[in-house]
Amino acid sequence: MTPARGSRPGVRPSRALPGARVAAALVAPVWRTLPWRTLGAAAAVGLLVVGAGRAVGAGPVETLYGLRGAGLALALGVAFLLDDPARHTTAPVPVRRAVRTLLRAALVTPVAGLWWAAVLLLVPGTVRPPAGDLTLETGTALVLALAGAAVAVRYGDAPEPGRSVAAALLGTAVLAPLLLPGHWALFVPPNDPGWTAAHERWARLLTGAAALCAASLHERGPHGQSRSVTSPCGTSGPSRTS
Amino acid sequence: MTATALTQQAAPAVARSGPRNSWAAVLALAAFEARRLLLRLPVLLAFALHVTWIVWRTLQPRDDYPVLQDADRATQGGPLLVGLAVLLCANRAVLRSTRRDTERHFAVLTLGVWRRTAAHALSVVPLALLTAVAVTAQFTWEALKSGAVGRGSVAELLTGPLAVLLFGAVGVLLARLVTSAVAAPLLVVVFLLLFVGGAFPSSGQETGAVWLDPVVTTAGAHPYPSDLLGRPAGWHALYLAGLALTAALLAVLVSGGRRSRAVQAAFAGALTLAVLGGVVQTGGVPARTVEARVRASVAPEKEQRCVRRGQVRYCAFSEWLPRVAGWARVADRVQALAGGPARGRDLLVRQRVDVRGGLLDDAALAPSTRPGQVTVGTSWGGNRVPEFSTAVAGVLVAGDEKAASVVCDGRMVTVMWLSLAWQSDPESALRGVRLDDSLTGSAIVVSRTEPLLMTAGQTKVVRALFDRPFYGVAARVKAHWAELTTPGVTTVRAAELLGVRASVGADRCAR
Asked: B347: buried, middle or exposed (CB in 10 Å: 19+, 13-18, 0-12)?
């Protein structure tokens, strides 16, 4: 049996529940379902990259690459944040997807913040690039990953789109430095005169990613149902045996 | 029930004709997986990017005169990205049955897990072959250019495709070790930092541990004769092939192939190959090559062959002899503009390199003190043409390279006019030969030996001369040759003699 998706007007008695209480009740189960192993692996790789750079005495440019690599690693982990094998069964629950997604993000944010602080502290002060600007870069990567996951969940049917989102994010990270024209450059070296301008672009990108993420938080409306409700094994279509 | 019965009935038949059939099945599965792999978006994108990069790079005007012993290893960078895409997709393909939960269905087949792993490893081979086609096309294109000199090496050309094979095998191995979907992207990030970002320990060196890196481009400033390179390309290809086989066979071993003696033996063999290649390639530059480098740097006349074209004798390393015609065209044009005894003077154009400090060393050559000798480097095309013509003009005006390198008077005007006036676009050639690409003010003029210096006044006069009718200036140069080439003639006087009115200060060269 295929569960009905989207929110039907009649099935919302629990909307009267205060949002905060629902969210508080959800904290523990959501915490349990977060992909901690994936996030842990990504965070470990980030720490490993930066730690290895410290161990071999990397210069400022290598350190910058290492920090960007660490940020990208965690972003690849975050791309899996909205993976939910039970996704199709949670579509009709009273708590809206936006609340659940935001709750996931909110639970991960402090952990990610602690991790990033550890990564920054792991870098010797002499070769550390401007921490604020680099935090902006990493934050943008994380929000982009989350936005990608949110878009994939909203417009796709896959319960676990993280893999594709991670591949797309990785492809973007590889291609952007190669293909972006000079006046759109994002990945500039620390002594470049365009550092400030590049970070204004990063800030704009962050805003755009956050807006995209916010716009994709909700479950797709009923107009998207017609396609998704059709089960591949259903009997409503023409007979497949002929 | 029926399925179980079928399996039970079929089992003895398979046992009878097992090995042959199962290998046919492995090959069929490999062909199927290869086709799927080829159609994955990252792989398609990587190949499209690789081809675009090849076309863009090869069409660059500065690549019109390729030196093939450098062009062969210039094919190695592109396949790295293809390899990373293949790693990602091969990993994904192996994990597909886990992801889609079809592993249980496959478990009833006679084709065991390790044979399916072998098929996945084999499915990477067509992608490596496709990379080989791209690499061969790139190199052939370079070799067919009319300005190409030197000779390429098959081992260098094999490096790119073997790197793709290695990365694909690593992707398969990773899937058999870790079933997590995030593992491959994370490994790609680490590989990107190590191999593309240059964070590999000791990267940027010429010998030693840097050769454990899959691709070692050793991109120096100048091309060198192929017998001075001393790159262990053959051993490196062996190392990559051994490593790729090791990774693939390890994947087969960990997925249950350890019962097969043949797989164990093959794994041991592959590991031996990888270790052998890995150890030998890090041994450094062989003593014979070091001696040859010193000989070619200190006494190139013993290694070179000479040909005479008109009044100029050209001595070059034998691989560069096809380029003599290009040098002769430039030298003849410059000498035809000279006047007095310089017009009929015998010149010697000698190709020189200094490779004693290794391939990555960008040491300036000492200017020659022998009268009438001009130094030419190993690169050609683009700014190297006005650089060479300036060297010829300098020797014609000052007598020898050493004297030309310290010219700081009105003679500089004659040198630059001789060097550039005959070219199709003298001003852009002037821009190209000046270090800061400027057209005003003082600037350093690049040279394969000691750089020259133009003052702001000399620049102004030279540009004014370009605006005047060519034949009028040429006649004046010839008429006043003796005075124009006298040491100590001022720029003001030179401008006067050449019929240019320009307010120029005294000649001051701040070196």
From this structure: buried
Asked if A167 lies within 8 A of B201 by C-beta distance, the reply is no
How near does any CA of chain B get to the CA of A38, in Å? 6
In a domain, A47, yes or no: yes
With contact defined as beta carbons under 8 Å apart, do B157 and B135 qualify? yes
| C-alpha span between A101 and A34 (Å, rounded) | 11
- Spatial neighbors of B344 by CB under 8 A, at least 6 apart, are B311
- Assess whether B343 and B237 both reside in one domain: no
The closest of B14, B19, B243, B234 to B108, measured between CA atoms, is B14
Q: What is the 3-state secondary structure (H, E, C) of A153-218?
A: HHHCCCCCCHHHHHHHHHHHHHHHHHHCCHHHCCCCCCCCCCHHHHHHHHHHHHHHHHHHHHHCCC
- Any domain includes A191: yes
**Min distance B40 CA to chain A CA atoms (Å):** 11
Q: Is position B1 within any domain?
A: no
User: pLDDT band at B342, cuts 50/70/90?
Assistant: confident
Question: Tokens 């919302």, residue?
Answer: A12
Q: Rounded to an integer, what is the distance from CA A228 to the centroid of its chain?
A: 24
A24 pLDDT exceeds 90? no
Tell me how far apart the alpha carbons of residues A67 and A129 are, in angstroms, rounded to a whole number. Answer: 9
Residue B55, domain extent: 20-285
pLDDT in tens, B447-467: 888 888 888 889 999 999 999
List CB contacts (< 8 A) between A65 and chain B: 193, 197, 199
Backbone angles phi, psi at B181, to 5 degrees: -75, -20
- A169 token code pair: 């994010």
Residue with tokens 């190590």: B194
- The domain total for chain B is 2
**What's the number of domains chain A is made of?**
1
Judge if B448 and B328 occupy the same domain: yes
